[in-house]
Design a protein that fits this description.
alpha/beta; Rossmann fold; Pantoate--beta-alanine Ligase, Chain: A,domain 2; six-stranded parallel beta sheet; about 40% helix; binds pantoate
Length: about 280
């Protein structure tokens, strides 16, 4: 496995791989790998010749009062884990390499960024689309792989790729969970034991929404109310949003008629966690 820190070397290596007929799968990450990340790499290995992973905590997708500085980082352990998954190439640039003096360009996807996390994290998705577009230009992948835990991110990236005619297949991989159902996230490392117990309320509340839907409840307000009450019964929780929306447009629904996305962002202590599930009326 090779580790590259500069854009020009990375572009040259990826160009040569393409010229030699190799298909490149790319897994963009912010590091601090858990099984969810490793699953993305496993899928990449399965569907391509070359697996490229980037490790870059992207400052432009964090708000001024968010956790950019304290975001967990462990490059040595990440490289060992990537090597264990037979990754071919890791791109780990510095902030200055990605955003040198004079940098001034942004990519903005309009409508699908205006819901869910886009409301509570203004500018977040501009940071994500901009860095992902840059990383695509650097790693030159045929396929890029993202987790479905961040359903909105996946939706926004699919939109960007379609709208800008990027010749890249976007693959979504189902959320990887701890045995007790907690969605894997690098931010889980912030939780103390009590908070971790309360964090289980996210996945359990998604079970509840699915049960209510299967029992015939069609009113979004009622399902939403039940989820909120359930989560708030757990200590240290504060709801950022609970939204039941169209999985493609992310627009709010009032009545469940076909499949719907239940998406949540909940603060558990100081840690903001997200989770989601697509539910379908019978
Ligand atoms: O999902 C993430 O880890 C990040 O948002 C991404 C896609 C690597 C962009 O920084």
């Amino acid at each position: 496995m090779e580790v590259v820190n500069t854009i020009t070397v990375m572009q040259e290596k990826c160009e040569n791989l393409r010229l030699s007929g190799k298909r490149i799968a790319f897994v963009p990450t912010m590091g601090f790998f858990h099984e969810g990340h490793l699953e993305l790499m496993r899928v990449g290995r399965e569907i391509s010749d070359i697996v490229v992973v980037s490790i870059f905590v992207n400052p432009t997708q964090f708000g001024p009062h968010e956790d950019f500085e304290s975001y967990p980082r462990d490059m040595e352990s990440d490289l060992a884990k990537a090597e264990g998954r037979n990754v071919d190439l890791v791109f780990a640039p510095s902030v200055n390499e990605m955003y040198p003096n004079g940098y001034q360009t942004k990519i903005m996807v309009e409508k699908v960024t205006k819901h869910l996390c886009g409301l509570s994290r203004p500018g977040h998705f501009d940071g994500v689309t901009t860095v992902v577009a840059k990383l695509f230009n650097i790693a030159k992948p045929h396929i890029a792989i993202f987790g479905e835990k961040d359903h909105q991110q996946l939706t926004v990236i699919r939109r960007m790729v379609k709208d800008l005619d990027m010749d890249i297949r976007i693959v979504g991989v189902p959320t990887f969970r701890e045995p007790d159902g907690l969605a894997m996230s690098s931010r889980n490392s912030y939780l103390n034991a009590d908070e971790r117990a309360s964090a289980l309320s996210l996945n359990k509340s998604l079970d509840l929404s699915e049960d209510l839907c299967h029992q015939g409840e069609r009113e979004v307000l009622k399902i939403r109310g039940a989820i909120e009450a359930f989560i708030l019964r757990h200590p240290h929780t504060a709801v950022d949003y609970i939204t039941i929306c169209d999985p493609h447009t992310l627009e709010d629904l009032e009545i469940l008629k076909k499949e719907a996305l239940v998406a949540l962002a909940v603060k558990v202590g100081k840690t903001r966690l997200i989770d989601n599930r697509v539910i379908k009326p019978a």
